[in-house]
Amino acid sequence: NIQDFSEEKEIVVAVNIDGSATRVIIDNVWFNRSRFIGGLLFQSLLIAEENMNNVEPDLCSEYSISPDGLTYVFHLRNDNYWHDGTKLTMEDIRWSIETSLKAKSINGYLKKGLQKIEGAEEFENGISEELSGVRIEGENLIIKITARDDDFLGGLAQLAILPKHCFEGVKPDDIENSSFWENPIGSGPYKV
Question: Which of 6, 9, 55, 67 has the most CB atoms in a 10 Å sphere around its CB?
């Protein structure tokens, strides 16, 4: 039930008979991004059309692809905030990419694309502490992949960006069991 509460929009997932909120549990947004709540609470770098062939900027204002198809540059919009008022940063995006690679439940289409990022295998296997193919330069996120992949942007559009500051101390393979999902903080047009 979507209701208008002054200027902000909230999703009331369920309420008790007395009107108090029940415990909210959101499905894993890295496994199934297309579910109703995952798509409204969380944004991605890009939004894909239903067929996944065409994408448009979401958290980024623009993006470019190198002529060889191996380097992607995303320019972050400066008006991105989490529902708790914290500024959404490139660190949140890099953290979401890295953490999703180590999460135990992730969409196969998304995982396949992320595994093409330079250094993904070393990062997943614990040989490297950071993903070498993802770097931040000012308000730009630069992603380098190892082989041209015409589906890379569509896969990346499946990655819901999560707030790094809300998952301090949570291991990647335990993200979906975190208490965060009882009262999630997103960046999308609706909040719980």
Answer: 55
Which range among 22-36, 44-58, 130-144 shows the weakest confidence by mean pLDDT? Answer: 22-36
Amino acid at 117: I
C-alpha–C-alpha distance, residues 81 and 161, integer Å: 12
DSSP one-letter string for 59-94: SEEEEEE-TTS-EEEEEEPTT-B-TTSPBP-HHHHH
> Is 49 in contact with 55 (CB distance < 8 Å)?
yes
Residue 152 near residue 161, CB atoms below 8 Å: no
Vertex 150 angle, CA 189 and 141, to 5°: 50
At residue 53, does pLDDT exceed 60?
yes
Q: Considering only CA atoms, which of 151, 98, 150 is closest in space to residue 129?
A: 98
